[in-house]
């Protein structure tokens, strides 16, 4: 069975960031979470949030953007 919920440590490992980064995003209200027995993060919501982050970079998206803006 796949676990869909992560705690702060699990999310930090999942995103490959520090726990302090997670706490910063929580305190700023920038990341979806629930507070039930500690902070919990639902993986599908986190994945969607990551796609909406302005710091998110995906090479395929950059190539598509360049192709759309190209006059060739």
Key traits:
72 residues; three-stranded antiparallel beta sheet; 4 helices
Structural features, described:
There is one protein chain. The protein is mainly alpha-helical and 72 residues long. It has one domain. It has helices spanning 8-15, 19-28, 43-52, 59-69, and strands at 5-6, 34-35, 39-42. A 3-stranded antiparallel beta sheet has the order 1-3-2. The termini are far apart. Residues 61-67 have low confidence and may be disordered.
Q: What's the multimeric state?
A: single chain
Report the span from N to C terminus. Answer: 49 Å
What string, H for helix and E for strand, traces the elements in order?
EHHEEHH
Number-wise, the strands total 3
Largest sheet: number of strands, sense, barrel closure: 3 strands, antiparallel
Class by SSE composition: mainly alpha
Radius of gyration: 16 Å
Mean pLDDT reading: 79
Hey, roughly how much beta strand do the residues contain? 5-15%
How many domains is the backbone divided into?
1
């Amino acid at each position: 069975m796949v676990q869909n919920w992560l705690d702060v440590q699990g999310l930090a490992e999942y995103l490959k960031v520090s726990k302090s980064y997670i706490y910063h995003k929580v305190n700023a209200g920038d990341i979806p979470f629930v507070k039930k027995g500690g902070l919990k993060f639902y993986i599908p919501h986190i994945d969607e949030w990551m796609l909406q982050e302005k710091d998110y970079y995906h090479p395929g998206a950059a190539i598509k953007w360049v192709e759309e803006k190209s006059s060739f």
